[in-house]
Amino acid sequence: MTLGAAGRLAVAASPTASQVLHLWAKGRFLRELESRLEPLSMGESMPEAVCYGVGCVTSRGASLGVPLETVGTHLLAIDAAVTLGITKAKCLVGKHMSFGALPAAERAEARRRANEHFNLVDRIQQWSGFDLEALFDSTLKRTDQFRAQEESFIRHCGVPRPELWYFAYQFLHFETIAQMYGAWLKVGWSMMGNREASKIVEQFRAGQLPHGRCEAAHDSFTLAQECARSREERISFVYFPAALSLTRRTQPDGRVSISVAPYSTSFPEDRILLRRGEQPARKFPDPRTVACPHLQRQIVDAGERFRGLVELVHDHIPNLLDRTEPGGLRLLDREIEEQQEELGKFRVQVGLKYQQGLRNLRALRLERAVLLREMLLPQLARLIETFAVS
What we know:
Blueprint lengths: L2 H10 L4 H11 L7 E2 L13 E6 L1 E2 L2 E2 L6 H16 L3 E7 L9 H25 L2 E6 H5 L2 H14 L4 H20 L3 E6 L4 H12 L11 H12 L6 E6 L1 E8 L5 E5 L19 H4 L9 H24 L10 H18 L7 H36 L3
Parallel strand pairs: 2-5, 2-7, 5-6, 7-8
Antiparallel strand pairs: 1-8, 3-4, 9-10
Helix pairs in contact: 1-2, 1-3, 3-11, 6-7, 6-9, 7-9, 8-9, 11-13, 12-13
């Protein structure tokens, strides 16, 4: 049974919609995912559509490509909608929302990315048959509904300072989509991991300052609270974790960049892109060739994410990819499970036998990662061939 089918059966059994999407979240390939869906229940009116967004600008400037994981962003939104019996999804394509003013050349690059995202939404809609629509942020800003939201913002908080602009307008765009289309369930991603994501929602609604890079956003979150109070139903959120870079890049502040936005990139050499001629084998290395243990684990984890993407494609575009899976993968899964059980029998995690068992487990996991990569490469190449936007 596919997970989508499991979700639909759960809806038929009439638990709350929050419980259904929690089941969906836990069952999907991002197993540590958490969801927070307070307003949703089977006894209340369901959203008419799911909303989510893709961006064309990063904190460093215009995105320099459309990563492969963008396909997963669209399919996860569709998957959440199907699980709840919702038949529509609205995708906000953000070509103007940015962390600051862009030079003319970068604005042109951002517009190119926006058109590529728009074309990708159209292609996924055709392949999946799901009612999926892309909306440019610039189009929404011209609507009466957006102007009303903006006026409410200025009334409560004044004109936003430049450092607040991105946070405020992102919220206002989704408020406008919720009002116009009944799309008050937002599917998003969390850079800060999994359990923290649900806490952000509460801080967001309470007008409190979330930690991390949002230090200047306090007024925007106060505004979010006021806008939410003006609506009959508040926007609900479900999160999936960020994508993973295929390299480890040290940022100017000393942080190591691992988690990245699924739909944009400032470093195209670190991501598999949806462009013609892209060769996934060059960017998705054999983990045996990776010397750094941390990067090796990162590559292994990225392989699991790519496998999850393939599973999503199987669920929603069933005739696109080959469904075969090498029997050796299932055999290795059993061996890994048995080795984990053996290690669990040790009361004290020290000693030669325990260390040898740990080395055996790592070797099995590495062997499995290599086999999984071999299975995935032709699948990823097929996805690039089908959805290449540049």
